[in-house]
Specification:
four-stranded antiparallel sheet
């Protein structure tokens, strides 16, 4: 039964059995309102009109690919804050990297464990919950978690939910080396079950968006990353 606190989840997938499996497990988990679309165009339209809390997006879709849908949503100011979990049969590293480059927050390959998918969804939604009144800064970087906003030198920049959580974690633990496995656990919300190079990809994209201010994030070769204290 849906409650006022239930989170709307949009599943964009053209395989009926996959939709049914995800829907069944989301309903068992409770706290979710499920909406579905079977092609990229209708999925994009539903995402824009329904503004779900999270989107499960297949990569290979009719009419419009999942990568195209992801790119459009992540470049639109009204939808770029919506977390996207890529769900696809493609397991090659290049496909994972492209999905992450386009702004996807997570990547699950078929066949998948429904329990794992639910845990990942819950982790993504948890990390999107901001703490009221919290305000962080590091040099020219200012973070307002309650509003999910980041500014550099007073100019607001756009970050995905993963990039935002990654930056906030590094700022909160400035001066301390954060190993890649620990970042996967703290930022992604689950144990190291994906390639740690995912962390490297997000750090690189985060630095690019921060511009010169991104130099505050140091690479500690062989370990992970650290935010400079000065």
């Amino acid at each position: 039964m849906d409650t006022p606190s239930s989170k709307p989840v949009l599943i964009v997938e053209d395989e009926r059995d996959v939709i049914d499996l995800l829907t069944l497990n989301l309903r068992k988990a409770g706290g979710f309102i499920i909406s579905t679309a079977s092609d990229g165009v209708s999925g994009l339209n539903k995402a824009r009109t329904e503004k779900p809390a999270l989107i499960i997006l297949d990569l290979m879709l009719p009419k419009m690919t999942g990568l195209e849908v992801c790119k459009v949503l992540k470049t639109d100011p009204t939808t770029r804050h919506i977390p996207i979990m890529m769900l696809t049969a493609k397991a090659e590293e290049i496909d994972r990297i492209v999905g992450l480059e386009f702004g996807a927050d997570d990547y699950v390959t078929k066949p998948f464990s429904p329990r794992e998918v639910i845990l990942r969804i819950q982790a993504i939604l948890r990390r999107g919950e901001a703490k009221e009144g919290e305000h962080l800064s590091a040099g020219a970087i200012t973070i307002d978690p309650a509003r999910h906003q980041v500014s550099v030198g007073g100019k607001r920049i756009s970050l995905t939910s993963i990039e935002f959580k990654l930056l906030r974690t590094l700022v909160q633990r400035r001066g301390r080396v954060q190993e890649r496995d620990r970042l996967l656990n703290e930022v992604w919300g689950y144990e190291s079950i994906i390639d740690t190079r995912t962390v490297d990809t997000h750090v690189r994209r985060l630095r690019e968006k921060l511009g010169k201010a991104g130099d505050v994030i140091e690479t500690v070769r062989g370990f992970g990353y650290r935010l400079r204290e000065d």
